[in-house]
Amino acid sequence: MGINIIIIIIISLLPLFLLISILGGTDGVDNRCDFPSDFIFGSGTTAFQVEGAAKEDGRTPSIWDTFVQSGQQTGDTDVGCNQYHKYKEDVKLMADVGLEAYRFSISWSRLIPNGRGPLNPKGLEYYNNLINELLLHGIQPHITLYNYDLPQALEDEYGGWISPKIVEDFSAYAEVCFREFGDRVLYWTTVNEPNVFVLGGYDLGFLPPERCSFPFGRNKNCSKGNSTTEPYLAMHHSLLAHASAADLYRTKFKKDKQHGHIGISIYGISLAPSTNSKEDVHVAQIAKQFFYDWVLHPLMTGDYSNLMKKIVGSKLPIFTKDEANLVKGSYDFIGITYYGDMSCKYMPNNWSVEYRDVYADLQIQMGFLSITERSLTSAKSLKGVLQYLMQEFGNPPVIIYENGFETERNSSLQDVARVKYMMEHIQVVFDALRNGSNMNGYFTWSFIDVFELLTGYKTSYGLFYVDLDDPNRKRYSKFSAKWYSNFLKGKTSTSLDSDAATKLLFYS
Ligand SMILES: *[C@@H]1O[C@H](CO)[C@@H](O)[C@H](O)[C@H]1NC(C)=O
Ligand SMILES: *[C@@H]1O[C@H](CO)[C@@H](O)[C@H](O)[C@H]1NC(C)=O
Ligand SMILES: *[C@@H]1O[C@H](CO)[C@@H](O)[C@H](O)[C@H]1NC(C)=O
Ligand SMILES: *[C@@H]1O[C@H](CO)[C@@H](O)[C@H](O)[C@H]1NC(C)=O
Ligand SMILES: *[C@@H]1O[C@H](CO)[C@@H](O)[C@H](O)[C@H]1NC(C)=O
């Protein structure tokens, strides 16, 4: 009898299964309603890139201010997009678009001007106001604690991230944030893109704090730094700072009072072989594993991977037993920033064995490697990144915290290409979710046009254009803002294929 009942149940459910599998096979996303309701859609910016008010209300310079002042980047960041004074207007725009969440970062040197010690009441007030304004409009705040903007005071005092002292100062800063804002904030990212900032800042030297050593600087003469050792130190201390802050959050705040999530964000490197040759394929595979393992392997296991150890050798710092315990499992989610592919090419090994940077370390072990600039290819490589995380790192909870399309800053407000890019990538996110990826959210970069890390004000990714010549820094909505708004409000009904964007343009 039992068996009969089971058979009847199976037979009666059969049409439902069939229906689900048919839909599953051909499903194009129409809009937000196709996603689970607890999946979070948002957009983001970071402090230095939008706040302005750089010299107001007690803020002191960060290493990014210094970078701009030294002429490495041009463009005014003292007023910038002026979100510091225009946050209410920006939150209103977010609410109009229908954003469910806003990802922003805290300027450490605004909140704690000397990096450690007394709080700046004006800084505290600003972030409280911003958080409250977001909540008033039903928008979840997602906070990043560190985004390329170390207080200059700490850089000057002990070299910032290359010193173990950073761990204590970062933890104290994080504790202030959890204590002051944690009653209202459920998502914390400790460090953004350590796998970019240690390479750009300490190996190639083209990002703040511009440390590097000859001959590794990219288009620059290195006056301070050591490309051979410092990238590994900076990463090691980033991991320890992250883990220490995460531990603090869990033991002191999350346990019974706050119920949020803490994670770290990494640059989602999709390293494609530049040709199908065996060598290129091999190099791309190893390089990719290297750049993920560097951050994720310690977080998962408490130690660097054997591959890392083999490639870096004695230059790789060692976790003590206590540190290993702290680092292992120190995340609730992994944030991913994703833009496009980079490609890897076989190159003859010609580096001196004595002094090597990170790239040369990779070359020495494998004999060859060249990583070229990123290119925007199809959304397929995002699929590759998500599958890689599922397969190699045990399918951790993931939030895509940045994804966006670059255009000339002054190009048309009818940014059809950006909408196509978003459609294609959102479709990939949907497919991966369907396929069992543990994905929890998707954020476009960027909400408004910001001061970009690599290009200043020359190019942009925003849903809104900001007129920098206007003293009011007026925002203008682009087609992408309208499209995203329709998507979020369940209004778009064309499947997200790339021709749809063009059609939508004519009906919008
Ligand atoms: C590096 O220094 C040399 C000699 O002083 C100079 O000729 C060259 O232009 C400098 N390169 C850069 C990128 O600053
Ligand atoms: C970098 O550090 C290594 C190890 O301490 C040292 O041997 C090397 O001379 C340093 N390089 C520079 C450019 O200071
Ligand atoms: C290695 O070879 C490449 C290509 O020939 C060249 O551009 C590069 O400067 C060489 N590097 C060193 C360290 O000699
Ligand atoms: C945008 O700026 C660039 C560089 O200043 C200029 O060459 C281009 O013509 C401008 N495009 C528009 C649409 O104004
Ligand atoms: C789903 O996952 C499998 C194996 O993990 C992979 O082969 C397949 O390509 C994935 N499909 C999508 C749409 O991500």
TrEMBL record:
The keyword Hydrolase applies. Pfam families: Glyco_hydro_1 (PF00232). InterPro entries: GH, GH_1_N_CS, Glyco_hydro_1. Keywords: Hydrolase, Signal. Residues 1-28 form the signal peptide. Belongs to the glycosyl hydrolase 1 family. PANTHER family: BETA-GLUCOSIDASE 11 (PTHR10353:SF29), GLYCOSYL HYDROLASE (PTHR10353). This is Beta-glucosidase 11-like isoform X1. It comes from Cucumis melo (Muskmelon). The lineage of its organism: Eukaryota, Viridiplantae, Streptophyta, Embryophyta, Tracheophyta.
